[in-house]
Design goal:
It is built from 16 helices and three strands. By secondary structure, it is mainly alpha-helical. It has three domains: 138 residues, Voltage-gated potassium channels. Chain C (Four Helix Bundle (Hemerythrin (Met), subunit A)); 158 residues, Helix Hairpins, CATH 1.10.287.70; 34 residues, no CATH class. The longest helix is centred in the C-terminal third of the chain and has 47 residues. It is flat, with a radius of gyration of 29 Å. It starts with a helix and ends in a 5-residue tail after the last strand.
Length: 332
């Protein structure tokens, strides 16, 4: 009985965490994704009071269905999280419940349950349901790519924003000193001048606050020119991070393809695994096909050398980027 329980828990975990690629798992995946999109659209439309009254029954029905499904999903995720060693037991489950995605799953249902318990339909609670849009990060390969880039480039992005923050403070201080006496309402204090400095350095330029003196305008030009490069720096880091992450994923896929083709044959089971891997990594079908074709054209090379230590003959069996070194058996 216990074995069957663990088997069911494992299957549940594999379906919810997309470890399984069965038709049922794909159905659950797309059902949850469509339901998230529908509820987010519903929350947006509900902000129109007239529209909300006209289609009240539809909105309520959709909310009840989504609430039940998302609540069951959350409970099953907490229960099946024990398949990961660090989340086993009571403390392990609590540890899982405070992970970012588990908190998002909880916030997706908590506002509605709170409104039901309080017998009140608070507008702010309806708005909080928009947190469900963050659940899409679990199902979208594009969001997986973005979160990976943010994770790997977090230090560089933080450094860029830190430098930008310093420049904003310097710009606000300078403008306060130059324009403070002439425009006390806008630049009378450094905190007031921060709004202008932020808008200027990010090159947004609302134009609601502008320097009036010649010195202020000259200082503003210097700050504006400085802001062009600084505002583009985080974007450049992200663009570079996307390129590196895509290349890293393609390299992982390429290495796996080389491993499968080491015997010169790519059977159906290996083809299926590569197809699933390409899907999980977000590699387009044509790109994965080109990588497999390129790898399959690579010929295995054998280079004979002499070991510099023991002076025994050795063979180097390698592709262009995959080398294996072993001692050559002597034929005596």
């Amino acid at each position: 009985m216990r074995k069957n329980k663990h088997t069911f828990r494992k299957k549940t975990f594999m379906v919810l965490e997309r470890e399984s690629h069965s038709k049922f798992a794909e159905f659950v995946h797309y059902l949850l994704m469509i339901l998230i999109l529908l509820t987010v659209i519903a929350v947006i439309l509900e902000s129109d009071a007239e529209l909300y009254k006209r289609y009240f029954l539809f909105f309520k029905t959709l909310e009840i269905i989504s609430l039940i499904i998302f609540t069951i999903e959350y409970i099953l995720r907490v229960w099946s999280s024990a398949e990961i060693k660090k989340y086993r037991g009571f403390r392990g489950r609590i540890k899982y419940m405070i992970t970012p995605m588990a908190i998002i799953d909880l916030l997706a249902v908590l506002p509605v349950w709170f409104g039901i318990i309080m017998y009140r339909d608070f507008m702010i609670l309806r708005g909080l349901r928009l947190v469900r849009v963050f659940k899409l990060t679990r199902y979208s390969r594009s969001m997986h790519l973005l979160t990976s880039v943010l994770r790997y480039e977090s230090a560089n992005i933080f450094s860029a924003f830190f430098v930008l923050s310093i420049l904003i403070i310097i710009a606000a201080t300078g403008m306060h000193l130059v324009e403070g006496d002439y425009q006390p309402q806008e630049f009378g204090t450094i905190p007031k001048a921060i709004w202008w400095a932020t808008v200027t350095l990010t090159t947004v330029g609302y134009g609601d606050v502008v320097p009036m003196t010649i010195a202020g305008r000259i200082f503003g030009i210097v700050i504006l020119i400085s802001g062009i490069g600084m505002a583009a720096l985080p974007a450049g880091i992200l663009a570079s991070g996307f390129t590196k992450e895509i290349n890293r994923r393609k390299e992982l896929f390429r290495n796996q393809a080389i491993n499968f083709l080491s015997d010169g044959i790519l059977d159906k089971k290996e083809q299926k695994k590569l197809k699933i891997m390409a899907y999980d990594l977000g590699i387009p079908y044509q790109d994965s096909k080109n990588i497999i074709w390129d790898v399959s054209r690579m010929q295995l090379k054998v280079t004979e050398l002499q070991c510099p230590h023991c002076e025994n003959p050795i063979e180097i069996e390698h592709y262009s980027d995959n080398i294996q070194i072993r001692h050559k058996k002597s034929h005596e």
